[in-house]
Structure prediction request, 1368 residues.
Amino acid sequence: MTIRVGVIGAGIMGADHIRNLSRNIGSAKVSYVADVDRQRAESAAAVAGANPTTDPGELIASGDVDAVLIASHDSTHAELILESFEAGKPVLCEKPLAPSVEEGRRVVKADEEIIAATGTSLLSLGFMRRSDPGYVELKDALASGRVGDAVLVHCVSRNSASAPGATSESAVRNSAVHELDIIPWLLESPITEVSWHAGKPSPGAPAGLADPQLMLFRTANGVLTTLELFLNAEYGYSTRCEIVGEHGALSLVEPVSVAVDVERARSTGYARDWRPRFADAYRIELQAWISSLVPGAEGGPGVDRGSTLATARDGLQASIVADSVIDSMHNGGAWTAVGRIA
Amino acid sequence: MTIRVGVIGAGIMGADHIRNLSRNIGSAKVSYVADVDRQRAESAAAVAGANPTTDPGELIASGDVDAVLIASHDSTHAELILESFEAGKPVLCEKPLAPSVEEGRRVVKADEEIIAATGTSLLSLGFMRRSDPGYVELKDALASGRVGDAVLVHCVSRNSASAPGATSESAVRNSAVHELDIIPWLLESPITEVSWHAGKPSPGAPAGLADPQLMLFRTANGVLTTLELFLNAEYGYSTRCEIVGEHGALSLVEPVSVAVDVERARSTGYARDWRPRFADAYRIELQAWISSLVPGAEGGPGVDRGSTLATARDGLQASIVADSVIDSMHNGGAWTAVGRIA
Amino acid sequence: MTIRVGVIGAGIMGADHIRNLSRNIGSAKVSYVADVDRQRAESAAAVAGANPTTDPGELIASGDVDAVLIASHDSTHAELILESFEAGKPVLCEKPLAPSVEEGRRVVKADEEIIAATGTSLLSLGFMRRSDPGYVELKDALASGRVGDAVLVHCVSRNSASAPGATSESAVRNSAVHELDIIPWLLESPITEVSWHAGKPSPGAPAGLADPQLMLFRTANGVLTTLELFLNAEYGYSTRCEIVGEHGALSLVEPVSVAVDVERARSTGYARDWRPRFADAYRIELQAWISSLVPGAEGGPGVDRGSTLATARDGLQASIVADSVIDSMHNGGAWTAVGRIA
Amino acid sequence: MTIRVGVIGAGIMGADHIRNLSRNIGSAKVSYVADVDRQRAESAAAVAGANPTTDPGELIASGDVDAVLIASHDSTHAELILESFEAGKPVLCEKPLAPSVEEGRRVVKADEEIIAATGTSLLSLGFMRRSDPGYVELKDALASGRVGDAVLVHCVSRNSASAPGATSESAVRNSAVHELDIIPWLLESPITEVSWHAGKPSPGAPAGLADPQLMLFRTANGVLTTLELFLNAEYGYSTRCEIVGEHGALSLVEPVSVAVDVERARSTGYARDWRPRFADAYRIELQAWISSLVPGAEGGPGVDRGSTLATARDGLQASIVADSVIDSMHNGGAWTAVGRIA
Prediction:
């Protein structure tokens, strides 16, 4: 059986998802593409042999669409999710869940009503690092007990350059949010307290963006996490995570395939941005979502969606933590307690 | 459009291909599975919702089969390829092309007649390293000119343990054959001369298997390649390739995701065998093959099969070189000229 | 000319210094060894063909002693330095300068009077990391401008196990003190503000020792430094330092000589403690001190002691910062301003 | 006691030795410097406060010289060694022992007569790799049995550029000779058979120099060694050695202290030539030689010279193997048996 996916948003992320769904994902095809820009919708749809539209409602309602992938502007996420819920269609929504915690709560409420009624959620959230082979191996290695319980975590998240319009706050909500999701996932414990500190401002950063930033998180199980977020690190895209345990430490290794020896140095490359770095993660995430939608007999290709992909609650929780980080930022770096979902 | 694949051979490799085709490959499904062992055929078919059979001929002839994947015993390859040719169906055949050079020549002849008649080949050969992201990056890096022309290549191919029944000769034909294909592909020059040397016999090797072995290859462009093949290296599966150029050197980096610090050491893992090491390569190879079969309008998902996957001639050429290596082995290591295809 | 050194303290550090001075350092010999334990003094002296004593005053006063190396208990440092000053003899004193800031100030005052009178200091302080080839290369690389100005620094300092009697406070004064000295040296800017945070307590740590600890330092030039100090990291001794600059980053690489491939892993070793890790640094530091004492014509072997070895002021400044860190520790982690020397 | 060393030859190597002996080596001083170029002798002697001369015989005979270090032109080695023997003075001679095997045999004969008469040799040969911490750790790791017995060794020796006048033959005698000494030392087994093969000529190599070259060595214990020697590798100086054993493998790791992240790459540096790469080895070698000359009571600083430094026989044996490699080179790469010393 082939799952016919309607993709809303044909920007960089949407176009990548369309390419993946058309070519690299089993049991899927793209049947509809919606974008506010008609030309972009049409050219993206042409690649996949899909119907173009500028109206996401038409896509969601279409009988040719079994499932909806939302990759449009952040501000549209909550509404499109709720509309898909009403159509009874499963959704994979790019992070964030919603631009505001209030909207996020509405989505979670609707999601939980559906779960209560049907026993299953319609929503998966695109925190792709949960599907990255490195993070998965890191989590497995921690679970193996080889280094004992975690006591500290060090994260580093560096980009070559910040996106236009980035601010200290948007950097937390859009970039640090990946760690706000992955740390509780790795440690199986929610973040309960946060503290924010400015680095020395890099001359490459625009006004309004403290860059680099340092954040400290404490999870309910007592583990302290440090996160350096540096959007204008210039040299490349780099994501590090080290879990220090009672008996040893576990570290992500940046994926490299080839080493080059020239001019008195051995060198290996960094990704230019998150897309090559997490290309496998996006493909695996999409495949996990599609496979979970294929009605499968026992032993069939269906997998338990809940086990790998993030839920609405995960997305809301990450947004709540982001708000607390921003509170600390506006409050001299003081340790700030994180609110709970309900 | 979905390509319905009939898979012949449901052993380790066949089962992996079936799992991939069912779940991780776009535009494909497994419709038929043949194996000499009926139970194995049935259980493999059940995973994919396919028809089981013990008769490969039935599979090849079936109207439910658009394309044939051959993963059965080496001795059956040539005949099954020719049978698929007669049915006019595209084939992806696991290496080797054929157990003997003579049979290989028959396949190449048939293939070239089809190309002459139709303009396109029906056969792709499963030298999966050509689809490995590391080897692809290595070839691209060489082509970039950054290190100048190649002058030397060093290859190392180590396994934990040899397969039952392995001999010095079968090790060349089944294991070293990967380098016999990949070296000409990397250097874009055929191997013209070979020389074989025994290492000190490892106590882990069975009688009849010189292990480790050292082979030297010279390609038409003058480059000298060394290959250490060690099937009972015990410690793990490892594939290395370093291209030394006029101005620098390029090396494959073993893929690792996580580093572990315990007990006074930092360590990273080796694959236990070729399957995890080349899992991406197999998936990408399969996807490239399937994508090449989907009739695509310009800009559609179809790719040029010839550009990445090995051809019948590649397979035959590798077999001819293997024979020359074995000649050198039986002749005190003397440099031995390699015969040409025709 | 041979500098005859009197070594006070024949414990682990003293014995190492005696071995080095006897065998691996040019223009030096050990002429006197003092230790409160007569037997220890005698056996250490025998190795070097030196005079043993239990009275450091006798050693300092001896006509056979050109220079004094103090490696006795921390509580004795200040007094022994001052006694050496009175004898007009140059001193290399192991860190710390003095157990309390008050005593440290007395030493600095005496040192500055001597400088005022003679134009040269008699005191060098043993912060050996300043002589470690890695730290020296790191400092040079920063100075080269290749990564621009520093914006952030990340330090990690891990030991296998804490020394008996270690407390949260002693860990700062004895272990973190190395970073309290090396960070200003690397950045050429004093630490002006500090903040302390507890990690999740490791079960391996004794009561009274928060382990691991996280410290934040801000230097006068605005750079933010993080330091993880983990005395019971179990797996080995590890010292990391990464300087993140405007255009790139610089990291110390743990020195390793051999990689081992066994049992499905590649591994490299960690030092068991600071002595093998910093053996080169101690040797180079000692050599730099001795060379600075040899009266040399221009172009001769003498070097400018001030350029590499730490001064009394450096030692006092590190102690003052340590006190501020401990203040923050006792004050809920609040950012705490660091006092200045005078 | 201070050993007064007379250094013959004040070129690059000689000047380095003089600097080391003056500053970084315990119990030593340079008392005499001889060079054919009077100005060079004088300026090198001035650094050390030594007597300059153009007459090595004057140096050897001088009552101010306890031991002789020979770093003059290769063609002078044998004669100067024999002259030192006659003066009864211990000698450290840079490799090679002698320009020809015949002269080497004369030295060995004289050396063995002295040993027979006095019980101790006067000659140490400067194969400095035996004192390199990496090679020492490699040998120790092999001896530990962790990887079982060796079955294969892979060596790579790359330089940025060949010295003026280098030929295929001189490359073997002057560069490959380091491996001709170190392989038997590592494996504790002499090389008994050799085979030589040309790589594709690098355009950077001068006429008369086959570059790169590949050599195969078989030791008496059956182990096969490969050596790539590439003098015009351009990118840097690199020395690799991997010992493949029955259960695992051991590899030298190039020493690096700092990693640099800039411009989309992480890089670590290569040495520009052998001097920084083996600076520690030269220092340790010199120290071992000097320490062995200091008359020491039990437990004193004297060490057994024979255990680390190469002997006259080692030097002769390496020369004999080099001749066999050149025979193979002139004979189409055939395996060639190595002659024995006597």
Remarks:
- Residues 297-306 of chain D have pLDDT under 50 and may be disordered.
- Residues 168-187 of chain D form the longest helix (20 residues).
